[in-house]
């Protein structure tokens, strides 16, 4: 692969699509800062003391305008930062350019190949001979995965001299990961070990990434402490829910201009993401149907007036299909064959394997007509009937629109900043073991509090007698850990 | 107090308002059974094996039609049952009559005095010389409180010969509790000890009651195991939320016939109950304002388009005030003085101390005009301006309407049945210590599953490969314990 | 029929259920006045000049608390008033008592037989030897019908000596009307003619009544001028829509306590009433389905996310059925036979013939179980399966609850007052012929304006240059006649 | 102005931005056809008989994908067509290219200057020496205006020899119109007269354009028959309402990516467009405030829970301002000076004079920062505070997004096709005078009916006895003319 790193006049590395978009990126960054009060409050509170002085942070997270404000919050607190995107379509090129020019090493562009994607991830983690990052900001866990797989391969290589064999897996993307590790192994059989040694910890953003971390914790294979940012209330109940409520219709409109009112829309999964999607579609005038495996979430849908059926029940009648499950094999090519002409199929869950893209792409005689980037009509052979697939089955809100809006990302990213600070400040105290932690509730409440002023809210103060009556401190936290909001 | 217990022809004790309403109660019970699939499924699954054979169950829980179906589910499973209401206004007299005639010992009527209320509670716990109940079904914790206070008094009496002094407290209701214990102490200084000895455990229904239990657990004073039914997802995220969404407007309409559309409504507290209330009012066309102490709940309100202000900000402009906090001293008489003429003030949280009824009742020169039972207009002296207080500050959905509808109570009460079964089945195994427990998630999911058929839902089955991919059993449970729904 | 008129100490006639409820009625009247700013503004504006001095007004309109405020507005403006209800179940007995005692001659009680109903209507129109009323306030057109049928019969009798023959019609209710006219004819063969001579005009409230009037206008048989109050925007787009949005769930809850969330509800008809009902049910968490004959209304439902199907499509799956059509034969007994057990069937359209009550009542072997007044379970033979019919197929919001709330009725009734004033003031000018008129738009806008202050609204004033730009007067009216709102 | 007409290989004239986008346009046209069942039904029903054979149609209407399907429906029915856009920002260049290449003469591109705009309008009307079009499809009335002003100028010139003087008006755009007429007058002093002679009629699409037509009818200056398509129910209650409900958030998101949830949004005007906008914003989680001059519309807003205030009341607190009035001078530069930093100001009403763009542009020291096309930040001098204006004050849904979606435009445009057919078919019968007409209700109902199948609806058939009962034909129309839906 003929990719080469470029350098700014000051010598910082980068690889972006078009550096001339940096000014445009900066204008949108300026607007976004006004919408991200949590991050700006972090700059005001912590900036003067430079707590990240000396810290190297690598981030693998959609390289959008909002992420750019996060990055510049980290650098404002003293960190050095390298960044890549965690999705081949999610980079906003003007954001990447502005950050590359002004603030951090960026390796990201909209429309990477998978091979380019992993090259970017490797660049992001590579801080040169001195090893890797001190801290990782992760989204979906790909940076964490690469290090864990790298360490595993180096151990095997040390013991047996064997290198990873891409042919050992069917998964095309994982083949690339193994090849990348294999190729690096020869040049430096200890670089992932050095990374592991240096690493203080990771903070992870998504349901999917967190699930991987808990699995590694359970099997004792987690190599460093992790903070589960996803399960901060101010993340999962805001970003996942209200973010998707905003960005799902945004993506649908930009990609297809289709009238949502009057249509039948199927939302696969009724977790936080599904709830946001179903709410948005319903309010836009669609008739929404939910599919669920979990009877509790199913009953929630029913209480909101949404029928719960199987995909098979409705596949031939629906106009729009959205996967939100975080699971795989939700909409298969056999389902697609039964859909109405021009049914829209998209994913806002996590990975593109929610939709059987492989089955579709390899269906004999299928014809792909690209309407515009990220909007493809697939026509089945012997018919004039086709379906419209968004963002090649990847996150449609990032592929077809610009992801979640700044305000809700400010909640998520303020959690990230606080988690990174916590890991860094406690790096020598032993407070965090090789386990997965959530942020304490008072920090979660603090994140929320930082976002109230912008919306003109006026909180009620608890009186001491009231605090005593319900058994909480006057200043919070106000709820038990198990409280569900 | 000249109350006397009556007896059915078969010798079962009771005290209800009007036994002639039993037929009417039975007709409504028949309707309710169709709406309570969870309870009916328990009867079908467990009835034949009579698991409660030999168990005495005392319940302190609103004596409504829905509770009647719960009671007859317990008796269908073999239990003997005694019952009282946990609120002076919440009994439905026809439900009480039907149960008293047909199924269990009931001591409850709509419009008890506080003194009568505690007499009923005492009757409910008194199984005669052989001690008390084996199990308690509690709502708000009054039955549990009485036993704990009783035991404490008996211990003090044994040690020091002192009896409780009602004058030691300002709380008028607690004075009655102390007097009741004091009076019983002379006759039988060990009856609460005998109750404690026999008791296998309690299952508790409400946020408020659960809070008391955790406080007792924390201070080591809890006398028997407790199952926190409130925090089953199928309870707190259904009954509290969807139940109140239904019963708040129901209570408002029956009590005042007021047009909700166009009005300004203040909801104090945005927990599950507050969320349900705010949703109902908003959908009926009110402009809703929320007051909150918790920044996270406040931010949730804002994301739904609901402003968050303090009561002081809006007290003079609003038309309807609803307390949902579970805390005390929310709306004080000073607030009431600033309200518009005919502002409606009501409570759907838990205790009547959310509203400063004492301050209102003792305000010099205030005049109370009873429009109809549970609907009073209070006119301040020197004005023609008054406010309308519902249910004397107690739960307005039970005082002014009929409480939550059967279907959602079926979720809550199926949890109760399962909790009671769990306590009883494990009574000899030592599984449950003197602590507070929640039901395991698979039982929570089972409760939900039992309610899907009635609503025509069709669940998707997880495929084994999918289950493995997300790391859950094919049959569930599907979510980690911390999942918030 | 052994009904006899009673008299107040001052000699005013009445027939109500229970005069002792007058105080309770007065308390609720006091509350309602605060919620009816339009009527109170009429009292303030017109009261001093006593414009109705000398006018006799007969009203046939649900004798509720709200109507009581209307009646006392008419009397405050100088009128003498006689009143009956226009529905056998819609009277609120405390309202009737308060008016009978304090303000006007009332003949109405909840639960009249049809025979009693027409007796009341006759009493209402009978002002003694001097003939009938000067003005009629009508709702559904029964008062107008009686006079038209009476005049027709008197003409026939004069010409041919024939009297009406009740056996000439199958319609049981119309048989009663003919019998009543026949019986009166013998005693006084000219009384309806005298009524007609005196009558200045009628103002009519409902879609159904208005339809009758236009039909009479078209055939040249209308005997006096009529003002169509129904089609004031501030009536049909408020009372019909927002009134029903409020009172449909109110009636359902009071009658059945059923949980609306999760249920499948069929709304037959998507006019203003149907729109209000569908909105209420949807917002309460039901899955709503609409049936329609009109493709435009159907497309409106679809744009709101509501499927449009036929009753046959969904009769076996739905839980709640509501008729709102103003047409007949909507839900037939054959439909009822296919419904689920305990399906709820009710009518909020206009007449009870929307539901095939005759077919149900005469179905061989059907069993009627009255749960409580206005709530009947009908069980079909050979099954344990039944349906629940509300208010015997008549208006369920008035039969099972208290009708529309005061605020929205203030809009409707202010139109009535203005229409009555218009007819009376122009009684000698010939402005109104024997035709049907709607109120001019500036009066419609005035009615709205009178209701804004209570809700804290602040209207924008049009600047002269803006008014000129859009070609309207600065003070309105602001819209062309065909504007649809 | 150095604009020159280009020609296709077949000699058809055009001027578009980029002919290479024609393939992309065709792909989107193919998708749109599936979403426009009314237009496709017209092709199927009327195509074979070629009713427009020989008719020249000129259209001035946003040159979008949806309009392209309209144009190709007109050509499929036999018409020859010339087209321009009615808004400088509303053209979709790929749609223009596809039509220019394949179907009709197009003069339109996104981002015309005003001078270019009127050049395009002139080109659209100019069919060569033989005069102008037979029929006009108008949106906003600019084509109609040009002809009326042209005829007026020619008459004046004939009488007095005077030519129009652009300096006679302050309105910059009207100066261009006068200059254009003046310049043409010298070359050919009768061309607008020839156009007038040939013209059979116009069908007009918008509230604004219709207002102009009624004013001309009232003053007797209307030169040819006009059909008011705007007031077809299937236009004004669908396109205006549901179209804006869709395209307002679409425009906001594409232009600013701002989170709508939690924001305060002011909607100026609560007509059909305002209702759609308010509904969309509310459902997205904004707190919506409406300003209104009309008390009836104001009361409607209040019934939906939306406060009605003046702009002055809220100008300093709101985040988003939307004008929907069709009037001028709604948001003045003095208002803008009081707004919060980065408040968003946009117009979806009709002309850009709803917002005081002139006042803003000429404010001393104001600085304009173009974030991206159609999204400008205006910073006031001496502050860092600015506001964000979309689409330079013009229609933001067309300037910043792609306008209304196909399905709802199919309703509007099917009315256009039917109106054009009606004018053309009756061109010799004298049925239409120089007046403004609306389509008869049965055609309105037909338009709706053509759109039901796509959404899976199943209409109920009226039975003859029912039709008779309510006095309508079995096949409709079902409602009186004054019915408001």
From TrEMBL, chains A, B, C, D:
Any GO molecular function: adenosylhomocysteinase activity
What general EC class does the enzyme of this chain belong to? hydrolase
**UniProt keyword annotations, A-Z:** Hydrolase, NAD, One-carbon metabolism
Signal peptide positions are none
This protein's pathway reads: Amino-acid biosynthesis; L-homocysteine biosynthesis; L-homocysteine from S-adenosyl-L-homocysteine: step 1/1
Q: What PROSITE patterns does the annotation carry?
A: ADOHCYASE_1, ADOHCYASE_2
Q: What is its EC number?
A: 3.13.2.1
Q: Which CDD domains match?
A: SAHH (cd00401)
Q: Which coenzymes or cofactors are required?
A: NAD(+)
List GO BP terms, alphabetically. Answer: one-carbon metabolic process; S-adenosylmethionine cycle
Q: Which SUPFAM superfamilies match?
A: Formate/glycerate dehydrogenase catalytic domain-like, NAD(P)-binding Rossmann-fold domains
Start and end residues of each S-adenosyl-L-homocysteine hydrolase NAD binding domain:
240-403
What top-level branch of life does the organism fall under? Eukaryota
Q: Which residues bind NAD(+)?
A: 206-208, 271-276, 292, 348-350, 397, 404
Q: Is Ligase among the key words of this record?
A: no
Xref: HAMAP family? AdoHcyase
Q: Give the record's family classification.
A: Belongs to the adenosylhomocysteinase family.
Spell out the protein name for this chain: Adenosylhomocysteinase
Look up and give the organism this protein is from: Cinnamomum micranthum f. kanehirae
């Amino acid at each position: 692969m003929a990719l080469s790193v470029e350098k700014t006049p000051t010598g910082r590395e980068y690889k972006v699509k078009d550096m001339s978009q940096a000014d445009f990126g900066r204008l949108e960054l300026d607007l976004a800062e006004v919408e991200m009060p949590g991050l700006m409050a972090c700059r005001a509170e912590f900036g003067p003391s430079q707590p990240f002085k000396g810290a190297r942070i690598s981030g693998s997270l959609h390289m959008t305008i909002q992420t750019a404000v996060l990055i510049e919050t980290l650098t404002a607190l003293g960190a050095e930062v390298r960044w890549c995107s965690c999705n081949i379509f999610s980079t906003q090129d003007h954001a990447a350019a502005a950050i590359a020019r002004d603030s951090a090493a960026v390796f990201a562009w909209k429309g990477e190949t998978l091979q380019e994607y992993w090259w970017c991830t490797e660049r992001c983690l590579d801080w040169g001979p001195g090893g890797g990052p001190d801290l990782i900001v992760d989204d979906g866990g790909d940076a964490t995965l690469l290090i864990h797989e790298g360490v595993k391969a180096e151990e095997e290589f040390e013991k047996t001299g064997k290198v990873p064999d891409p042919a050992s897996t069917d998964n095309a993307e994982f083949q690339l990961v193994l090849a990348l590790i294999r190729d690096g192994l020869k040049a430096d059989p200890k670089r992932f070990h050095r990374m592991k040694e240096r690493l203080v910890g990771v903070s992870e953003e998504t349901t999917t990434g967190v699930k991987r971390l808990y699995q590694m914790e359970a099997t004792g294979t987690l190599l460093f402490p992790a903070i589960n940012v996803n399960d901060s209330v101010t993340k999962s109940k805001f970003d996942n829910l209200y973010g998707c409520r905003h960005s799902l219709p945004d993506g649908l409109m930009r990609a297809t201009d289709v009238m949502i009112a009057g249509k039948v829309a199927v939302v696969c999964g009724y977790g936080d993401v599904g709830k946001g999607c179903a709410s948005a579609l319903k309010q836009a005038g669609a008739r929404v149907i939910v599919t669920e495996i979990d009877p509790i979430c199913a009953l929630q849908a029913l209480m909101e007036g949404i029928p719960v059926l199987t995909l098979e029940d409705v596949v031939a009648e629906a106009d729009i299909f959205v996967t939100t499950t975080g699971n795989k094999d939700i909409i298969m090519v056999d389902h697609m064959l039964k859909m109405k002409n021009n049914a829209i199929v998209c994913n806002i869950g996590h990975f593109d394997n929610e939709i059987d893209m492989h089955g579709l792409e390899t269906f004999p005689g299928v014809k792909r007509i690209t309407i515009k980037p990220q909007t493809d009509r697939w026509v089945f052979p012997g018919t004039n009937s086709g379906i419209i697939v968004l963002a090649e089955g990847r996150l449609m809100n990032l592929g077809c629109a610009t992801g979640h809006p700044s305000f809700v990302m400010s909640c998520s990213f303020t959690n990230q900043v606080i988690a990174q600070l916590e890991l860094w400040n406690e790096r020598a105290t032993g407070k965090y073991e090789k386990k997965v932690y959530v942020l304490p509730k008072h920090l979660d409440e603090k994140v929320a509090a930082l976002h109230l002023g912008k919306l003109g809210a006026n909180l009620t103060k608890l009186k001491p007698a009231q605090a005593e009556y319900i058994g909480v401190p006057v200043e919070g936290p106000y709820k038990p850990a198990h409280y569900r909001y």
